[in-house]
Amino acid sequence: MRTALITGATSGIGEATARRFGALGYRLILTGRRSHRLEAVKRAIETEHKTEILALSFDIRERTAVERAIAGLPNTWKQIDILVNNAGLAAGLEHIDEGDPDDWERMIDTNVKGLLYITRQVAPLMIASGGGHIVNIGSIAGRQTYENGAVYCASKHAVNALSQGMRIDLLKHGIKVSQIRPGMVDTEFSTVRFHGDKTRADAVYKGITPLTGDDIARVVEWIATLPPHININDIEVMPDRQADAFYTWRGN
Ligand code: NDP
Ligand code: 8X3
């Protein structure tokens, strides 16, 4: 039976991925800060699919908390087949001269340093058990940079570089590294970006049918269940009305 660790499983893409992996019968290690949400997701998947789930609530920005959480895994949970590095966020949408440095730190500490902290703990476990698969959730913002998004885009450019570097460094250990770069996905992402302003968040998706968390989870599932000799290095996924980070067709 395969074991998957999914960061940021309390909502959006991470929660949807947990549900899909649960349906496949995977054992799941789910993480996120909101422990009540995490427990609710755990209970729902356990009830529906009768799979084993460990819920680990910690802030991925805190290196010692990440280290403690992974070091404290029971031995029977230390063989991790798939790590989905999904936890992340955008905070604010401002020109660089007006941006809030607290927002910048949240994005860099979560999207870049948090991803590194957990990977540093899980990769040796994968090596010890003979291999594995790491799926990084990047973004179209990892290859393009848009106005007001310099720091979020920089953080996802870092995920893009890390995905390439990890793939090289871990290849000899039998660890595959894939990156998924979504466009617009209607999750809690925009509400978080706009600090809870739901009206502003909803406007982002007006006039298009955005992707759902489950649309991306479907891609994670596909990548994770391909024959072992195939790796999807990198894949960009967006709604049919979105061409790239700059151009979205919302009709007349
Ligand atoms: P959501 O806001 O719905 O989910 C984000 C998840 O990340 C939550 O489970 C949240 O859990 C977790 N998270 C955030 N900060 C921390 C932290 N400090 N410690 C632990 N967990 C944390 O958004 P999405 O599902 O859309 O986002 C998932 C990923 O997809 C992100 O990396 C995002 O950048 C990326 N992405 C999203 C796109 C979109 O349009 N939605 C497009 C491209 C990429 P909790 O709050 O409980 O800690
Ligand atoms: C999130 C998508 O367009 O806000 O990564 O960069 S976008």
Q: What number of domains?
A: 1
At the fourth CATH level, what is the homologous superfamily? Answer: NAD(P)-binding Rossmann-like Domain
Major sheet, described briefly?
7 strands, parallel
Bin the helical content.
40-55%
CATH topology: the name is Rossmann fold
Strand order of the largest sheet: 3-2-1-4-5-6-7
Distinct compounds present: NADPH dihydro-nicotinamide-adenine-dinucleotide phosphate, 2-hydroxyethylsulfonic acid
- What form results from the Cα inertia axes? globular
List the total number of helices.
Answer: 8
Q: Which blocks of ≥5 consecutive residues have pLDDT under 50?
A: none
Strand content: 5-15%
Distance between the termini: 51 Å
Please provide the count of β strands: 7
Structural class computed from helices and strand pairing: alpha/beta
Integer average pLDDT = 98
| CATH class value | Alpha Beta
The value of Rg in angstroms is 17 Å
* Element order: H for helix, E for strand: EHEHEHEHEHEHHHE
For the record, the CATH architecture stands as: 3-Layer(aba) Sandwich
